[in-house]
Amino acid sequence: MVHFTKKTSFYSIEIVLKTNHSCKHFVRYFLQDGHCVLKLKCESHKWYIYFAPTPSKTPEKSLKQAVKLIQKLPAKVRKDWDQAEFREFNLGYSAGEEPNSFLNNISCKTLRKVRKLGAGIGISIYPSVHTDPNGLPMELYT
Question: Which of 27, 28, 46, 121 is the most buried (most CB within 10 A)?
Fold first, then answer.
């Protein structure tokens, strides 16, 4: 019999902009790079722009990759980033029953790099699903 658990884990990083500017260069750049970019109407700003680059295994590494991604942007694309009134790296977690305690650290050096880009860090917590010891969802067994 397979033992299923709900584990707490880090699983995503999302880059979020809220802006009153079109950010057309930003959107086009990441679409052409193969990312799924959403540009939606927003209550607090004209646009909510969102995409999720492939995360690393930790939020620290994922943030470092996202910072490098933004730092390397071409001038027109970077201008769209800089003009956005709200810039955020959102870290996604699934919250489960195990382990009893869960800890991730983000270094001061990485926090300074995020700050230098004028971005904040958000944290989203989602319900986890039951998985087997290999991390496969229980639904695959039914």
Answer: 27
Contact of 95 with 127, CB cutoff 8 Å? yes
In a domain, 1, yes or no: no
138 in a domain, yes or no? no
Dihedral sign, Cα of residue 31, residue 35, residue 40, residue 44: negative
pTM (two decimals):
0.86
Does residue 139 sit within a domain?
no
Q: How many domains does the chain have?
A: 1
**AA identity, residue 115:** R
Q: What's the pLDDT tens digit per position in 17-73?
A: 999 999 999 999 999 999 999 999 999 999 999 999 888 999 999 999 999 999 999
Residues 6+ apart with CB under 8 A from 103: none
Alpha helix stretches (DSSP H) within 40-102: 59-71, 75-83
